[in-house]
Design a protein that fits this description.
The protein is about 10% helix and about 30% strand. It is mainly β.
Amino acid sequence: MEPLSFQEYICSLDTATLPRILRICSGVYFQGSVYEISGNECCLSTGDLLKVMAVALQKVICEDTETGQTMELPPTFKGLFQPAPAPGPYPTLQGLFLKGTGQQGLTLHQVLGRWDRQPQPLLCPAIGPRALLLHPVYEVHATMHLRRDTVKIPSTLEVDVEDVTEAAQHIHFARPLLLSEVLGMEAALPAQAEILEGPSGPAVFESAWVPRLRRGQRLQLHGHSHAWRVLASAPSSGRHFLLSSTYQGRFRQRPRQFKGVQELVAGLRPGRPLRVVVTQDCEGQGEDVPPLCMGDRLEARGLQGNGPGTRLLCHRHGGEEEEGEGEELLLPLGLGGGFVEEACDSKKYGLAELLEQQPLPCEVRVVAPDPGLERDALGALPALRLEARLDQPFLVGSFCEEPEEGFEIPPRWLDLSLQLSEGPVHPPAPCTRRSRVEELTEAFYYRLLAQLPGSPAPPPPRPPKPAQAGTGPGGRHPSAHRPPVPGPLPMSACPAPPLLPLPALPQPSTPSQYGRRRPPRDAGEAPGTSRAPAPPRGPAQRHTALVGGQGLPAASVGCA
């Protein structure tokens, strides 16, 4: 079949023969199309194949043969058409096509069904007395190789095509998959895959293997990971981690600290006494509330009363010589001060055992690093705050060039486009010890923290400082107003239920100090390691792809 313009081919196409495979012969960049303006754009290069799946009539351009004026007819137009004498070099209709039909005219769709590559002069009393030419505009739904979505192309696109259906029956139009889609394809795993497009959006992990997830990288996908995770933070260094349930380090509980009576109330647990030591002197409130002195030992027992008069019942122990004596105190909930829990538990816990004994959030210290890690970053931290348990699905993967070293990737946080291939995957599954501790980027941590059930809102802005020397206009110091900074969960927060699965995250709207993307760092890197500053990003630029190897511009078409 010789090449035809796309419009000629689609207008004469018998839809009963779909699908049809077309090869792009030549074309131009159609810059003014609404598809390009709306931002939906793909490239058609010479030699590309299209598999036409459906054709839908969008509108019909009706042209007056005498004046050249045009008007649009919707597909639902009800007027009837009749053949008209052809004053110019137009082909006659296929015989007198109304002969023997008994009809007064043909509907719009009947006329288009008798199309013979060129428009034919017609009369339509519903429009006017002069002869008309009809130019239909179709929307063509087609698939392309290695493209996820269906391409929607206007039939008026200025490209030439050739029908190669008979010669291309063996060609398979592969559709890329998202890694999140592979989660539901357990029967297809293990399998090899090639990355077609790397992860988009903000970085999630600081690990060195994440930047390798780029176009062309070949992976082995082994199956689902059955481990759950715990979100953790290091208050002393500002680092944030994701701990796997396979982590083999040992923990010891740290005493909880409370700021004020309100946090003491939130720290009460049914059936378990809460014994604390006062760490900050607190003035009394009249005869009802005596002062608290540093070193006082209190046992919080429960609430009494209700409404504004609710108080916390505490027992203040006497000195060491008066162990059995003491006094009862009723402390108002608004009373400040500082308290630290009397903890005498020196037992070492594994991660699963610790979560059974201690509700989250809680503070711990790693007293025995994971022996399976070459360098356990958690062992050097003076304190670690365990904040929430996460039941996010992970896939076990490895790089084809390093099949024995695996990693665990969360597809709903780190999604990417890939194509499964036929290569073999050799058992057993790789070791994933390096995924036992993953350091999170600061931006993703705060994004994740904000989506935890029961997470508190960021603190309000600080009130303005009193007017003094050196203040700015209006009596305000230039540094009086600062953006709110999201803080960690309070020690008194209730235990958080498992986190619901998250989709791939968009660009976070956190303050700028949390939005910087640091270079990759393994979880084992020491917190004091210095880094060279990353160069600033330039403004995003838009490029138009050219036809490969032909020197021709590509045709812009719309895609769903």
